[in-house]
Design goal:
41% of the residues lie in helices and 18% in strands. The protein has helices at 14-32, 37-53, 55-72, 76-82, 86-101, 140-151, 165-180, 198-204, 219-228, 251-263, 282-295, 304-309, 338-348, 361-370; strands spanning 109-114, 120-127, 130-135, 155-159, 189-191, 212-216, 241-245, 272-278, 299-302, 314-315, 329-335, 353-357, 375-378, 398-399, 407-408, 415-422. Strand 3 (130-135), helix 6 (140-151) and strand 4 form a beta-alpha-beta unit.
Length: 429
C-alpha cells in the first residue's frame, strides 16, 4: 500500500485498516475547514494538471480492468461504464476545472435576522464532515466525488468496485499527488485499497468518524448498504425513467425526444426505460417510433395496443414495468389519459426522472404537479439529469431520496448548515 493511502506501521485486518482510514479522514476534515476558497481552487487546478500528466498511466490501468472485466463476462453496459477513453478523461479534467470556478458554498449565508434582545442570528452553510462514497464500475466517480467533496471542505473515503480497482488506484494517486503539491491536507482524499467486502461493512458502521454514506451502483449494492448502515445514507437508486407522449404532442418532437432518451446512451440511470403514449395518437405515433427503435436495435416489450401497432414488439409482463434495463430494451404502454400516465409513473417509477411531451398547458401543469420524481421534464429528454448538464460541475450522484438532497447532487447538496449567533453580552433571564 503506497503512502498516499495510509502509512501502515504494521499488518492490520480490514476492520483496523478502516478504523485508521476513518480517523485519518476525521483529522483531515478539520484541516480542510481552514482552507480558503482560493486555496481550494488552486489545489483543484493542480489535480486537473496531474490527471493530464498521468493520462497514459490511468489508461494503462484501465486497460487491465477492461481485460479482466471481459474475461469475467461483464455485461456490455458495465464495460461501457468502466471504460476510460480520452473523452472521459477529458471530462474528468474539465469537471475539476468546472468545480474550481464554481462558487464555494461553505460559509454562504442562507438567511439572517435580528432578535429583539439584540442577538444577530445567521444560518450559514457548513461542511458535512467526512463522506463515504461506495460505488461500482465507473472510475470517473473517483474524480467527481473527490472534487466535489474537497470543494465543500469534506474529507472523502472512496470505495470503488473490484472491477475498477486499477483505474481507481491510478486516478486517486494522481489526484492526491497533484493536490499535495499545492497544499492538499494529508488523507483528505482516501481510496480504500482493498476489494474485501468486509471494508464496505466496516465503512457503513463507522459512526465515530463518518457523517454520511452515498452508495452509487446497482440495486443489490444499494440495498446491502441500507441494510448494513448505521451511518446516514443518501441513495443514488435505480433510474426507471418514463417519457409520456400526450395527446397534444408535436409528433416530430416526440419521436426525437423518445429516441434520444432511450438510445443516446442506454446504459445510464437517466435513460428512458418505459414509454407511455396517449391512446388518441397511438396509431399515428407508434409505427414510426417502432421503425426508429428497430433501426437502433431496440427490443420492444409492449401492451396489447402497442403490439398491434408495432408487430415486432413482444408482450410485456407485469414485472417488465418495474425494470431498469440499462440496455437497448424498452417497455411501451398505451394509456387512456394523462391521469393513467401519472398513476403508472408514480406506481412503477423510482422517483428519478420523468418527462412529458405536450403542447397543452393544462397537461403540463398537471404532470409537473403530480409526478413525484426528483427531475420532471417538459418537452425534453430525461438524459439531461446530470450535474454537469444542470450547471453544477461534476456531480456526486443523483439522489432519489427526499431528505436532505434530491436529484443531481452538486456542491450545495454536500453541505449542511449551522447557526451563528453574535451578541454583545446578552444573557437569558
Amino acid at each position: 500500500i503506497t503512502s498516499f493511502f495510509y502509512n501502515w506501521r504494521m499488518p492490520m485486518n480490514t476492520q483496523e485498516q478502516m478504523q485508521q482510514i476513518g480517523q485519518a479522514a476525521k483529522q483531515a476534515s478539520r484541516h480542510l475547514a481552514r482552507l480558503s476558497s482560493r486555496k481550494k481552487n488552486s489545489i483543484l487546478e493542480a489535480m486537473a494538471d496531474a490527471l493530464e500528466a498521468n493520462r497514459s498511466a490511468i489508461q494503462e490501468a484501465n486497460a487491465k480492468d477492461l481485460a479482466a472485466g471481459k474475461e469475467a463476462g461483464l455485461a456490455a453496459a458495465m464495460l461501457d461504464r468502466l471504460e476510460l477513453n480520452d473523452a472521459r478523461i477529458d471530462g474528468m479534467i474539465k469537471g475539476l476545472h468546472d468545480v474550481a470556478v464554481l462558487n464555494d458554498p461553505v460559509g454562504e449565508e442562507i438567511t439572517a435576522w435580528n432578535r429583539p434582545n439584540g442577538l444577530h442570528i445567521r444560518k450559514v452553510r457548513a461542511p458535512i464532515g467526512v463522506i463515504g462514497i461506495i460505488f461500482e464500475s465507473r472510475p470517473n466517480v473517483t474524480c467527481d466525488a473527490a472534487a466535489l467533496c474537497f470543494k465543500t471542505s469534506n474529507a472523502v473515503i472512496l470505495r470503488g468496485g473490484k472491477e475498477a480497482i486499477h483505474s481507481n488506484l491510478a486516478i486517486a494517486k494522481a489526484l492526491q499527488e497533484g493536490g499535495e503539491e499545492k497544499g492538499l491536507p494529508a488523507h483528505a482524499i482516501q481510496l480504500v485499497p482493498t476489494t474485501d467486502r468486509e471494508a464496505v461493512r466496516e465503512l457503513c458502521r463507522m459512526t465515530d468518524s463518518l457523517d454520511l454514506i452515498i452508495p452509487r451502483g446497482g440495486e443489490s449494492l444499494i440495498n446491502a448498504v441500507i441494510e448494513m448502515a448505521l451511518v446516514p445514507v443518501i441513495k443514488h437508486y435505480k433510474g426507471i425513467c418514463h417519457t409520456y407522449i400526450d395527446a397534444s404532442a408535436d409528433l416530430e418532437m416526440a419521436w426525437a425526444i423518445a429516441e434520444n432518451a432511450k438510445c443516446q446512451r442506454p446504459g445510464v440511470c437517466n435513460a428512458m426505460e418505459t414509454l407511455l403514449v396517449h391512446k388518441e395518437i397511438a396509431a399515428d405515433f407508434l409505427p414510426k417510433m417502432g421503425a426508429l427503435f428497430h433501426a437502433q436495435n431496440v427490443k420492444l416489450l409492449g401492451d396489447s395496443t402497442c403490439c398491434q401497432q408495432i408487430p415486432s414488439a413482444q408482450p410485456a409482463s407485469e414485472e417488465d414495468w418495474y425494470k431498469e434495463y440499462l440496455d437497448l430494451t424498452l417497455s411501451i404502454r398505451v394509456v387512456d389519459h394523462i391521469e393513467s400516465a401519472i398513476e403508472h409513473i408514480n406506481h412503477y417509477g423510482s422517483g428519478h426522472s420523468d418527462a412529458i411531451v405536450t403542447q397543452d398547458d393544462t397537461s403540463e401543469k398537471q404532470f409537473l404537479a403530480e409526478v413525484d420524481s426528483s427531475s420532471v421534464y417538459v418537452n425534453a429528454s430525461t438524459r439531461f439529469t446530470d450535474g454537469a448538464e444542470f450547471g453544477m460541475g461534476a456531480e456526486i450522484g443523483i439522489s432519489t431520496d427526499k431528505l436532505h438532497a434530491r436529484g443531481p447532487m452538486g456542491l450545495e447538496e454536500l453541505t449542511t448548515y449551522k447557526f451563528v449567533i453574535e451578541g454583545t453580552g446578552q444573557i437569558r433571564e
